């Protein structure tokens, strides 16, 4: 017994309602419920042949499961491999999201071109014709005959082609354009995205081919479609970057086969994406000499230390309410540090506009950047420049104490490589340092002690 029914499904969270609603009761978003037709088949009406067609995978003791070590394939792009955990795992499903025009298709075309030395590649484009893909490939100097392009939106046709070619990797550009004939809803709907992702996952695990899925993002930067999509895939990667900057950050949010804290740094050029092996020198290349309100700190992104420049501008407020603006760092964290600076260091910013920026478009979330923010604010307020060969890092507590941070030696060695001469760090880290570090180390226990050394 099979019949159709009309439901209204939220395109943001997947909530189902029997009638249309202006606002989703589950996620709270407006105008996201879309009419869809759904097939309902009662489980008690299944025939015996349908029941017998199921196959049971018997359980196995974990000691008897064969572990294959050499299942990673390097893409040839070191920054991409770093984010993936060392290369592509055979049979994995990888989701890549990012703003339109950020370079998702460009990155995958460059990576797939290098992967052709290991086997065939199937690039499925649901948004562009093969001629348009060819135009981009010529601009990127890609001409491998093992890179096969197919303009298709029906998933069953894509899987049939993949079964014939047996590629080592498949690119789906994008998942929102794909549809399955088993689902009557429109492409890009919650049901279609979920069904297509499930079928791609099953194909990847059974065939051993790695599948890359490009996903659109919403206004708030999250991948469009149901959140279950991110739970289905093995790896979730976001491609970040500001339109005014040429830098691109590849960040892993989820990775079942490696670290989820790694980042890859690229630069967008006329000939495609160019990987940056030493991002510290790049982010500090245009640092002004003798300017106030600027300081360098060391941030840990995954297993990599990166030197960043923090800039702050403190000026008298021209309107009644002072402004607080932060770019690249948490707004609430900046407000907290301003309050600590006023209470414990006697630097009053009540009637001041405060602007904080991380140069290069990178976003810093770790608390080790607290001392850099406070130092940049104090430098701008006092109108005194910080020694350009000094680096600072440390976490600040509400009582003004400077707490220890992780991997201090790794941060200092990166600063030593860039020829910094002095480091203001937490006293607890300075007492536990081991190894040969040629930088002058100054350990401080609170904000006031740090201000005495810096100004």
* Spatial order of strands in the largest sheet: 8-7-9-10-6-11-12-13-14
Number of domains in the coordinates?
3
Q: Number of helical segments?
A: 13
- Shape field: globular
How much of the sequence lies in strands comes to 25-35%
Structural commentary:
This protein is α/β, with parallel strands linked by helices and 455 residues long. It has three domains: 45 residues, no CATH class; 209 residues, 3-Layer(aba) Sandwich (Rossmann fold); 173 residues, 2-Layer Sandwich (Ribosomal Protein S5, domain 2). It has 13 helices and 23 strands. It has a nine-stranded mixed β-sheet, sandwiched between helices. It has a four-stranded mixed β-sheet with strand order 15-16-18-17. A three-stranded antiparallel β-sheet has the order 2-1-3, with no helix packed on it. The radius of gyration is 26 Å and the shape is globular.
Features:
455 residues, alpha/beta, Rossmann fold, Ribosomal Protein S5, domain 2, nine-stranded mixed sheet, four-stranded mixed sheet, 13 helices
List the helices and strands and how they pair.
Layout: E1 2-10, E2 16-17, E3 33-41, H1 48-52, E4 72-73, H2 78-84, E5 88-89, E6 93-98, H3 104-115, E7 121-125, H4 130-139, E8 147-151, H5 155-165, E9 169-173, H6 190-207, E10 210-215, H7 228-232, E11 235-240, E12 247-255, E13 263-269, E14 272-275, H8 279-283, E15 294-301, E16 304-316, E17 324-327, H9 331-345, E18 352-358, H10 370-382, E19 390-392, E20 395-396, E21 402-403, H11 408-417, E22 422-426, H12 427-431, E23 440-444, H13 447-454
Parallel strand pairs: 6-10, 6-11, 7-8, 7-9, 9-10, 17-18, 19-22, 22-23
Antiparallel strand pairs: 1-2, 1-3, 4-5, 11-12, 12-13, 13-14, 15-16, 16-18, 20-21
Helix pairs in contact: 9-10
